[in-house]
Design a protein that fits this description.
- Two copies of one chain form a homodimer.
- In chain A, 65% of the residues lie in helices and 0% in strands.
- Chain A has 206 residues and is mainly α.
- Chain A is elongated.
- Chains A and B meet through helix 7, helix 8, helix 9 and helix 10 of A and helix 7, helix 8, helix 9 and helix 10 of B.
- Chain A binds a DNA duplex (30 and 30 nucleotides) through helix 3 and helix 4.
DNA sequence: GTGATACGAGACGGTTCCGTATCGGAAAGT
DNA sequence: ACTTTCCGATACGGAACCGTCTCGTATCAC
């Protein structure tokens, strides 16, 4: 929701002139995402460059957002996409599902570029990081934790470990691969291998 | 090693005028690191700002480096600090050592800020990422892998898993905590908990 | 139609940074 | 003493971007 849309729902239902173009809204948000994906970096983003990329006049951007910060906050909000529910049969399969979705969508080109951009600016743009975290990370983390808790209740997961830590044991390796092996694709089957590796442990079982 | 020092070892051993100030060298590199640590972001770094932060004239920077790219490459090279050898008693203790050093130094304030900055620009500055990777990441990864291979040979580590993947099982959780839980400190004892968690596995052993 | 508002384009003055050049003074060799 | 090079400071023209404003045109309610 843009600032303008929020304000349009106010006390003035009578829209009198030419209405704002929804296509322009989309073009601007898409342009920001394309630029971030291209590795442009939050503080190298320019309103001028965004308008250019969107094929839009600068005034059209400033008519909707007061500045770069407000625009970026709204862009973060468009990323919302609550994670699919999980099938709930075996905990192991649910974990594989979660990591497989992370592999295919969460850490695919665009999303991983945005993740990088956000993590690198959390310090200089804490508000922006907060919005990204709340919109993108929180729901997925909650889902993972609920699966783990169910696993603990059913005896499929050790109950003597912190849920936070357990979640990181599963998420971390995928993240590590995506961030440190920057240009390599995340190979098919990685989700299964991580889940089974973490479940069974690195020490041999006799 | 700065470009100037490299070139000074060339065919001209006769240094005739006032020698370059080593203090200025250090001040400039330190300034870059301080700015990165402050969350400034690679493409928001300006030569002008660097000189200002270092308390140095712009010409003093340009006398040493041809531009921002060359300077940043050299800054990456100063990060070299080959990891301490590992005690080599039990594989479990070695793994704890490695992760504990990662917690205390590798992901402490300055170093994690630089890691964030690099991962977010690997796409737009591949040369810079390469240098960072070679200087900072490679040696530590090699050490970790050698420890894991020793563990496999001694039967302390499963031999049916890929060493790459195994390494990520240990590194990933620490990385995940440092990058996604941006402002939280990495708590004491985290290294032990990760290593033991991964070694034993998330599934209960009976 | 008429009035209101949005559109893309871009002019505008102000700021910051670029990379180069020049300054007077400092620190080394000869 | 004299030369050479470095030092910090700062001036320079050029570029990019800021946020505002003004064009001429397009699209809506009335």
């Amino acid at each position: 929701m843009t600032e303008s849309e929020a304000e349009a729902r106010g006390a003035r239902p009578a829209a009198r002139g030419r209405p704002r173009s929804a296509a322009a809204d989309r073009a601007i948000v898409e342009a920001v995402l394309r630029l971030l994906e291209r590795g442009v970096g939050v503080d190298a983003l320019s309103m001028e460059g965004i308008a250019r990329e969107a094929g839009v006049g600068k005034a059209t951007v400033y008519r909707r957002w007061s500045g770069k910060d407000a625009l970026l906050l709204d862009v973060m909000r468009t990323l919302e996409e609550p994670p699919d529910e999980v099938r709930g049969e075996s905990v192991r399969d649910d974990l594989v599902d979660i990591l497989e979705r992370l592999r295919q969508r969460g850490l695919a080109k665009r999303n991983s570029a945005i993740l990088r951009a956000m993590t690198s600016h959390f310090h200089s743009h804490p508000r922006l990081w907060q919005e990204y975290h709340d919109t993108v990370i929180r729901a997925r983390r909650d889902l993972l934790h609920s699966v783990l808790r169910r696993g603990m209740a059913r005896g499929e997961i050790r109950a003597d470990l912190d849920v936070e830590l357990l979640g990181e044991l599963f998420i971390g390796p995928m993240l590590s691969r995506a961030l440190l092996r920057a240009w390599a694709e995340l190979p098919e089957g990685l989700a299964e291998r991580i889940v089974d590796g973490v479940l069974e442990g690195a020490r041999p079982r006799e």
